[in-house]
Amino acid sequence: MGDTTPTALISSQAKQATDTSPTLALHHGINADTSAQKRALSYSITIHQLFEQVMQSKQPADRIVAEYFRINKKHGSKDRRVIRESLFGLFRWHGWLNQLTTLCTAPKAWFASLALTAKIEGHPWQEFSDAWQTFAANPALAPLNDAGDLTRLAAKQQLLQACFPQHEFALTQLVPTWYWQHYPTSSEDEQYALIEALCSRPPIWGRLQGINSADALASLNASGIEAKMSDYFDDAINLGHKSINLNSLKLYNEGQLEIQDLGSQVIGHVCAPRPDDNWWDACSGAGGKTLQLRSLMLQQDRHSKGSIIASDIRRKPLEELAKRVKRAHFNQISVSPWKTDALPVASAQFDGVLVDAPCSCTGTWRRNPDMRWLDDASAISDKPALQLDILQRSAKAVRTGGVLVYATCSISPTENEAVVEAFLASNPNFTLQQLCHPFTGEQQSMLTVLPYQADSDGMFVAKMIKR
């Protein structure tokens, strides 16, 4: 249910990246004559250090980058953007770029990777991209100079193929081979759409609380954020792709805006809590869905007497939940952490129980492209036994006539449909409820939200009724 790697270890690793490293060999034989070239070389060394640190430590890239910037405060906002977006771009296209080591000499393969990443990601720092291409000193990169519209994935593939025609750059290489064993796509079109979505940056999705959309949009526009409302949920808002300093936003500080992906918001709408229901969020984490459940209650009745208990085995996320509840000015939310295998709440007392189970998080690979290459098949195959155990335990808290919702941010049937089917096989007093997919309109017994359907993360959800 979470990572337990000490922050001190990450700090030590981040500090090591600022000291001595084999990465410094990138300096050798490179003549950086202009100011732009010198900065480009400095960036390339830092990015390489961070890339290698992620791959060796197997720790999430966003955590390692955050710790690096915390230690190295010399970087301005542009430095941070170049470093961060280049690093995540390298992971996004790693399935293709890792082949350059056999096509280019080291360290020139690294500079070629940076130049290609900048081009296919459409990064605006042309002067650094040009410098990296110069450092690569490889005539094979000439097609970069005349590349046209690279919006579609097929165009990016064609560019790589034009640079290195002797090698194959297959679309399926952008996702680990083991993954397709756990997510068999029904058609080539679906496979293409999924890969294209996984290789694009999702927008920042938010959710409004206690404020109408017109006032929210006006406030955000005044802060320079070009936001727009979702076509699917009245309280869902698209905040675009640019980084946002949330603490500078009035809406956020006053609890009227929460960051929550659109796919994640599907879960709350499937739960559909009534104003006076009592719910238990059995794996709440920092409480994004807990807050959504309470917000949905209050949207129906501002005097709602419904309540929610949030539980997790980790204390820090629950502490963060408490801060978010206070900021939102919500009442009727309490915390009861898991301390043993025994239920931390009363049995058979809840109108609804949400089990957002720990999973492989393959549905969030758009936001965390590094995890594609850090995980292996065990990230999926190790989870179902734990997921089923949590679901079995949590189901005991549902009253007769109540609902049990099982959700993950995975899109693998191994962690989703298979777990629900195993649960139903041993719990005949629960039955599946038919659901309408919010993005496709299809009636389904279990929903899988795919990233390309509404520009969101991938999610899964099933809703059961206790007879």
Task: Provide structural commentary.
This protein is of the alpha/beta class and 467 residues long. The protein has three domains: 141 residues, no CATH class; 58 residues, Alpha-Beta Plaits (2-Layer Sandwich), CATH 3.30.70.1170; 205 residues, Rossmann fold, CATH 3.40.50.150. The chain is 43% helix and 13% strand. The strands form three sheets. Strands 5, 6, 7, 8, 9, 10, 13 and 14 form an eight-stranded mixed sheet that branches. Helix 14 links the parallel strand 5 and strand 6. The protein starts with 6 loop residues before the first helix and ends with a strand. The N terminus is likely disordered.
Low-confidence runs: 1-21
- CATH topology title of the largest domain: Rossmann fold
Helical residues, percent: 40-55%
CATH class of the largest domain: Alpha Beta
- The best one-word shape is globular
Q: What's the architecture of the largest domain, going by CATH? A: 3-Layer(aba) Sandwich
Protein name: tRNA/rRNA cytosine-C5-methylase RsmB
Family: Belongs to the class I-like SAM-binding methyltransferase superfamily. RsmB/NOP family.
InterPro entries: MeTrfase_RsmB-F_NOP2_cat (IPR049560), MeTrfase_RsmB-F_NOP2_dom (IPR001678), RCMT (IPR023267), SAM-dependent_MTases_sf (IPR029063)
Keywords: Methyltransferase, RNA-binding, S-adenosyl-L-methionine, Transferase
